[in-house]
Amino acid sequence: MKKSLLIILVLTVNIAFAQRIVTGVITDKTNRPIESVKVSVKNTDLKTFTAATGAYSIEVPAAYGTLEFAKENFKVQVVEITDDVVDLNMTLIADTDLFELSLDELMNIEVITASKKSENKKIAPATIYVVTEKDIIENGYTDLTSLLENVPGVVAIRTDHFAFGGQRGFLSNFSQTLLLVNGREMQNLIASETFIATQFATHNIKQVEILQGPASALYGANALVGVINIITKNDSADFNATEYHAGIGTQQTQSHSIVFGKNLNDFRISGSFRYFRSDLWDYKDFIKDTINFRQGVPAKAFPVNQQFEQTSWSLPYAAKISYKGFYVGIEGYELRGSRGLENITLDYKAQYDYRQLALYYAGMDKVITAKLKINTELQFYKERFWGLNTSFNKAIYDTLVKNGHNPDLPLTDQEIQENFMDIYSQQSSSGSKRYKGNIQLNYVPSQTLSIIGGYTFDMFDLLGIALSTDRLNPDFNETRSIDNSMRKPFFRQYKNSLFLQLQKTLFDKFYLTLGGRFDYHNIYKSIFTFRSGLVYTPFQKTSIKFLFGQAFREPTIFELGNLSINNKTATIDPVRMNTFEIGINQSFTSNLVMNIVAYKNTATNFIEPAATTSFRNSDKVINVFGIESQLFYKIGKIRTEIGYSYVQKDADDYAGASTVNLGVYKHRITGGLTYNATDTFTINSRINYYSEIQAKHGNKDIMQIITIPSYTKIDLTFSYVKIKVYDAEITTQLLVTNLFDSTFYQPDIRLGGPKQFLQHGRQLFCNLIFKF
Q1: I want to staple 161 with a disulfide (CB 3.0 to 4.6 A). Which of 340, 426, 501, 571 is the partner?
Q2: 103-232 in CATH: which number?
Q3: Range 594-604 average pLDDT
Q4: Pair 729, 217: CB distance under 8 Å
Q5: 3-state DSSP call for residue 26?
Q6: Residue 752 to residues 286, 382, 390, 620: CA-CA distances in angstroms?
């Protein structure tokens, strides 16, 4: 196995007229020379390699120059040559391949989500969890949902339509979380939801940063309880390769993916494409379970031989071209699913949901001076979706019985089609659109001060949905009118935003962050959010964080669209959140690391149903207290990681009882154990424990609190990594999820009809990765 190397650069600069001669030697920590290190001078075509002795001699032709040293599996920081430098002696530690980092080094990797700039995770002013490409391969994560269920403070619930869940005790359909890809929003437009299904896979992920806590002061609306930022390989300049991924598994699952990036001097082209299809989990027995699934629904109403079939396929794609700081790109997906278990349905076989979302962007990164950088970017989103379901509706069924249907007989196909088939569609529309422009300035006047500020213009032009009971592609009326439910005037919204953040280092031990954001929206007018953080590093391996943040979530068009109002008299205000946090990160040794954080969330103005067709702001204040912790340990060839989450949420009055933590897990444990049997063969096991939970019965017609027992799920992954075959590097994996085929349930937190959701049984997957 390769070892982390300490690269020592001893540079001597000789001034000779209009040029610089830079000489030195590169060695490892045992003082042995390192050869074949690529050295380049920025803005010139000069490229050279060190000799076998590690010595180099480089002519820098300009009055000022920047040297960049690079070796496979290493990124070495640049060395700037200026008139003020005569003799330069530097010791630099290389940023090695993530597959070779020690635990202590992993805790000090760079993150960008906490401050919109690269910084050490240990001093970032946020509670942030990082999942690297190394973690993804070792743990066998195939999609974003499987990754998130192993993050402290996060709950991910599979419905096989899209993931329900959330962060820090606020669970729904992740609608309180902001989803980003390379810092750009990738929510769906219709309701700003983090619609996480099979389109967010792990083939193109370099790193995922999960920020816990409010982040509106940086990112604006909907970063209420956190941010998920997916950083892709193809968008990273240091990815200069081609990868082919192939996967096959149970439930007729198969996938094919290509990720590539190519640097050609100042020109770079990159992209990612994936095809995925699967029958997903087979629920044919569960949908007939009148106790655990469709309790309270008349069993005789359903067809005697009710069938269950589902197929999901997705096509996520990305491409980017850049040249000397200018770039254009696209990020998007097409997705078709079968709606899974979201609703109790009279015809599961016929159901489907089709989604199209594309983000086009163009921008510029420009270095104005050595201290000032600017980024400007224009973004255009387009979305359409359509589908069909046959959800059971008790009120309609009771009316049919009243009008003569025999309740001892199942519904006929004709009765189902005429009364329960619900077609929703934007297929014939021009699609919802979003136009966004950003300007961000990064000013670093000194090594101890950083200022980031920016302006954003954001306009939504959203569409509602055409509904039909018999036409698969109903006509779409795009006339803007208060009487047109598909395009009310206030579905077109715009806002202007300003944000400013200051970060200051004090006495080399304190890192202060102050930031604020002002948003002006054409409906709910102005809103201000603030954040502050103080990170104290009393010792080299200790950091203590004191954090405060504010956030808000905007009303969705569903919440606004059900109001009999116009845009001038809207009365629904954004949901607000304040969060206080204190945390500590401690490296006891290079192989024993711990972090722990305690927080309190206070939410107001939560939007709740006021009646069947309207919403209102609740006057109830919601308090959530929680603790999250992680422990990492390595001994010999064994590495282990344990995460623990504790949540206590205010009591809810429901079904005649006052219940604390209603629908929220009090205790969660996630852990991993990795054994490196050889340099290339790894065995990994993961355990997920969910405590017993009290939840609302998922059938809204049954006012009852149910108990879902605690459960434990174990996954196992075998990996052969980085096997060299000619010019290719091959990784193979075998993944077994839910090893012991346990039966377990999670709550129906949106009250869609099912009492609770059955989670997947045992599944097997094989992955093959070729890297060229």
Answers
A1: 340
A2: 2.170.130.10
A3: 96
A4: no
A5: strand
A6: 16, 28, 13, 24
